[in-house]
Amino acid sequence: MTRDGSSGSGLRTRRSVLATVGGLAGTAVAGCLGSDSASVSVLAAGSLAHTFEDHVGPAFEDETGFEVHGEYYGANAVMRMVEDRTKHPDVIVSADATLLRDRLYGEFTDWDVEFATNSVGIGYDEETTFGRGLENGEPWYELALATEEGDISIGDPDLDPLGYRAVQAFELAEAEHGIEGLRDELLELVSEEPDEPQMMAGVESGSRAASVVYRNMAVDHGMPFLEFPDAYNFGEPGLADHYATVEFTTDEEGYTAEGRPVLYNATVNDEADEPDAGRDLVQFLADESDPLVEAGLTVGDSLPRPEGDLPEAIDA
After folding, report:
1. Rounded to an integer, what distance in angstroms lies between the CA atom of residue 25 and that of residue 254?
2. Cα 83 vs. chain centroid, distance in angstroms?
3. Is the pTM of this model over 0.85?
4. Exposure of 194 by Cβ count < 10 A (0-12 exposed, 13-18 middle, 19+ buried)?
5. pLDDT, tens digit, for every residue of 206-235?
6. Which partner from 57, 121, 203, 302 sits 20 to 30 angstroms from 287, CA to CA?
7. At how many degrees (to 10) do helices 97-104 and 75-83 cross?
8. CATH 3.40.190.10 for the 10-117+265-308 domain, yes or no
């Protein structure tokens, strides 16, 4: 099965291309099969919790015998935990490819593989006034401006790319729709939620009308989802220059993130306890699109795409 879902030899080609990243296929697996404790630890962006727990993890274990033990936080927090060695994962996965490279290259890794994309929009409760308005085709921003403070949540922009992408989306929407002050008005109304799973739980419990989320998060929860227009959904790689016209600087670390397409990447920690198993998992993410697509992510023809100090055998 090829990455676009058609039958053919594309997957075999990708496996050979990425063989050097994962080691010879099956080498690490052979050394660990038969052990009840065979596992690989993953520290990943919070938006991938269901993707790994319900899709990638079980599929990887079926194929290799390795269990995936994952922990999930905002990607900014993930990078900080690696940097200060609060966490010691084998595999690190980011929802912002550039963030991982900016923060970890040089000390913890010097390569990564991009494996999926996503888009930003609004997950909502269709039984609320806001949700009914969306169902009727009313502009989301007009409905949002009419909500009560806290009815809509976004991620914490100081901890999570989803949070700062929400802020950037508001700024791009202000320009796109010609509504002066839209960004600031929305930021006065929304509530910041540092825990991505709680964003979804708030909508499902009825305590929130909606949350600005990634598409796969809504798919995970069977929640109605309104994708933002391409001009500010961060889902179109061809609009990278447009997205880059906005930026956000975090308060705690002073990291400035330009607007950029949502692009997930993974690497193996140089300090990994199980580096071979880690490389097998990265290779699996690059090779096997089905679990990712089932989870609501997008895997385009340009992926997987290696980056950094990779062996020459990898043809990006």
Report:
1. 41
2. 20
3. no
4. middle
5. 999 999 999 999 998 999 999 999 999 999
6. 121
7. 20
8. yes
Residue 201 DSSP SS3: helix
What long-range pairs does 82-88 form, CB within 8 A, spacing at least 24?
Answer: 82/43, 82/108, 82/269, 83/107, 83/108, 85/271, 87/43, 88/41, 88/269, 88/271, 88/273
User: Is pLDDT larger for residue 12 or for residue 237?
Assistant: 237
Q: Is the domain defined by 120-257 classed in CATH 1.10.357.10? A: no
Tens digit of each residue's pLDDT (9 = 90 or more) over 95-148: 999 999 999 999 999 999 999 999 999 999 999 999 999 999 999 999 999 999
Sheet holding 191-193, edge to edge: 191-193, 152-155, 210-214, 120-124, 225-227
Tokens of 91: 């595999």
* Number of Cβ within a 10 Å radius of residue 196: 27
- AA identity, residue 92: I
Mean pLDDT across the chain: 87
Strand partners, 110: none
H helix count then E strand count, the chain: 16, 13
* Separation CA 33–CA 38 (nearest Å): 7
What would the pLDDT profile of 185-201 be if each residue is shown by its tens digit?
999 999 998 877 788 89
What is the pLDDT at residue 7?
34
Residue of 303, 208, 211 whose CA lies nearest to 262:
303
pLDDT digits (tens, 9 = 90+) for 60-79: 999 999 999 999 998 889 99
Domain with CATH 3.40.190.10 in the chain: 10-117+265-308, 120-257
The crossing angle, in degrees rounded to 10, of helices 182-189 and 161-177 is: 140
CA-CA distance, 121 to 192, in Å (whole number)?
Answer: 16
CB 196 within 8 A of CB 138: no
